[in-house]
Amino acid sequence: MPAEGDSERGGRASGGRTGLRPRFADRFRTAPARESAQPDLTEVLETGVAVATGLRSPAGSPEAVDALRRLAGLCGAEAAGLLVPGQQESWWGPGRDDGIALGLRARTGGRRLSEGDLLALPVPVGPDPAAPDPVLVLAGAVGMPAARRAAGFVADALERAALDAGAAAAEAARLRELRAQISPHFVYNALTTIASFVRSDPARARDLLETFAEFIRHSLAARGDYTPLADEFRSVEAYLTLARAVLGERLRVQVRVAPEVLPVPVPVLALQPLVENAVQHGVERTPDGGLVQVSGEAEGDVCVIAVEDDGPGMNPEHARDVLAGTAEGAGLALVNVDRRLRAVYGPEHGLVIETAPGAGTRIVLRIPRFQPGVVA
């Protein structure tokens, strides 16, 4: 008996692949002898999640191949393949060579092709219509409606993977920009100050040089996207030690951090740019200097970090413009930190600036102590 859906696939033959035992999807096919069988919806949903996750893995990886196996089971295919431009082909099941060859022809022609019991469907992904589309190849008695649904499922998974890759690239670009914004003026003044102690106080010069090395190591050489809050505070203390050596008694510092928040993973350079901003705008611009306070404490499942100065402050409307990146003459450090926090933790976890003219400035971060995917 011909398989259901053959008439919708241009009369493609259902023969050519015999002896393959039925698999997962057979439980969901409607057949006269099994009309009372009902699909396990939980298993279907779990399989769908596994397919979506696997298809977002690199093409050709074991995860991608396993996703094709599961996808084939869902739509009743005997084999499945995915050809993504510029990546290794992924294939599960028999008939790889014929399937890949048909998929390449479909990708070149930009249209659906069938040959024997093989069906190749372009999967439109991305905004560029001129770019070649990925191609999904299915083998076996798969009806066109099921094949189209499978292609749509693949398109959604690939688009989500592209969005994830884009977000990761944007995060890396913001981190590179933050590292590039380390003030050359501060570095020059710090090194000049260290040099001034070489003859008069060699021990202090050595200590400051080690502190400077620690600051540079964390700011420029830190690996990965996240670091324990303890490392961020060490970088802040190194920066403040160097800043006090440069500014002398004009800079007063208070640092308070609760031990329970020290292991919390945070984005690299989430804190130091805020402290540098407080020193530059709250202390250096004031003839008598000022006080910078840095604190970290736990409030339930949230880590609350505050950076405060008693400088001239600013108009709240200007603070909003700073975070929006539209304030004239404003640096990008606060903007980048704010956007990185929102990208990692959600829009409700951006920076909060509390300020008013003559009232100093307080910047608050509220970071979840436990966030899926955030590991130092």
UniProtKB/TrEMBL annotation:
PROSITE patterns cross-referenced by the UniProt entry: HIS_KIN (PS50109)
UniProt cross-references to Gene3D superfamilies, sorted A to Z: Histidine kinase-like ATPase, C-terminal domain
Record's keyword annotation contains Electron transport: no
Start-end of Basic and acidic residues biased regions: 1-11
Taxonomic superkingdom: Bacteria
The Histidine kinase domain, residue ranges: 271-371
Catalytic activity line of the entry: ATP + protein L-histidine = ADP + protein N-phospho-L-histidine
Molecular-function GO terms, alphabetical: phosphorelay sensor kinase activity
Name this polypeptide is given: histidine kinase
Protein EC: 2.7.13.3
Enzyme class: transferase
Keywords, alphabetical: Kinase, Transferase, Two-component regulatory system
